[in-house]
Amino acid sequence: MGTHEESIDVDVPVSTVYNQWTQFETFPQFMDGVERIDQVDDTTTRWVTKIGGVQRDFEAEITEQSPDERVAWRSVDGSSHAGVVTFHRLGPAQTRVMLQMDFEPEGVVETAGDKLGVVGRRLKGDLERFKEFIESRGTETGAWRGDVDAPPTA
To answer: DSSP secondary structure string, 21-74?
Structure first.
């Protein structure tokens, strides 16, 4: 499983950045290869992606969510991946967004792309577009500020 980490500093308050990140249906506006996301319920999203000509449909569940701090998820079907995004207040109007994603490449092409750094560059580009998106708006398109408790550890 490949692990990828990227971060970016955004010139918007932490609550605005967090609120926007909870609006999953807007992700196609700044995430390359994301065609559509449907919010099924508070903790379930349905994704349609098309990357390198390969379309994938999968469901993901939010496994942990704490307002202004973190959102964690994992896939429940389709390709195996999980991740967490954390939000760090740097000042009254500046936030660091840190994204960590683990995924299991499928097939030779994805494995080669992972080893060549394609996934890391894609995540970096997505964060840069998110920064442009939220800074140009200055406000979020919506918010969900509920808590999702992390599953108990064994």
So the answer is: HT-GGGGGGTSTTEEEEEEEETTEEEEEEEETTEEEEEEEEEEEEETTTEEEEE
- Given a contact cutoff of 8 angstroms between Cβ atoms, the answer to whether 51 and 39 are in contact is no
Query: pTM of the prediction?
Result: 0.89
Q: Has residue 73 been placed in a domain? A: yes
- Residue 96's domain is classified under what CATH number? 3.30.530.20
What is the count of structural domains for the chain?
A: 1
- Residue 118 domain boundaries: 2-22+62-137
The answer for residues whose C-beta is within 8 angstroms of residue 63's C-beta and 6 or more apart is 43, 72, 73, 74, 82, 148, 150, 151
Q: pLDDT at position 121, please?
A: 87
